Amino acid sequence: MATSSRIRIATSPTDGFFVNETVSFTSSAGDNASFRGPGTYPWLLQTLRAFNGEGAARDMRFLLTDSDGVEHAVLSMSDVSPVSVPSGDVLVWNGNVIVPPTWRIYAKWYSMAGGASCNWQYTAVELSP
Fold it and tell me: Which residues, in sequence order, are CB contacts of 30 under 8 Å at separation 6+?
């Protein structure tokens, strides 16, 4: 389930829209991934947050892929990826990265047990003409 909002951030069409979405899901056993992409116009990606709702620490990471699934960037606030995230805690990234319209932003969890409520969220500015 996803909850999203898209709000014009200025009166000029070239100033774009603020985009915010939270994606919630029940984990399944194994590796879990969820993605979103800009669609028509590029995004200036600003924040990512992913919640580990499982009962134990899980490795997690954020990455950018092109339309063929080739990984181009791992977005991390630490020197390692994936990052071990304790149960009930979050993985967070803050920055400014332009994401082309055909690319995808992934949140990935590894070696999950399954059955837990998890979610991830992003904020971006849609760079519409």
Answer: 111, 112, 114
Beta carbons of 47 and 125 less than 8 angstroms apart: no
**Tens digit of each residue's pLDDT (9 = 90 or more) over 73-114:** 999 998 889 999 999 999 999 999 999 999 999 999 999 999
**What end-to-end distance do the CA atoms of the chain give, in Å?**
30
The residue type at 127: L
Of 88, 84, 91, the residue nearest 106 (C-alpha): 91
Residue ranges with strand state E in the chain: 2-8, 17-26, 30-36, 43-51, 58-65, 71-75, 83-85, 90-99, 104-112, 117-126
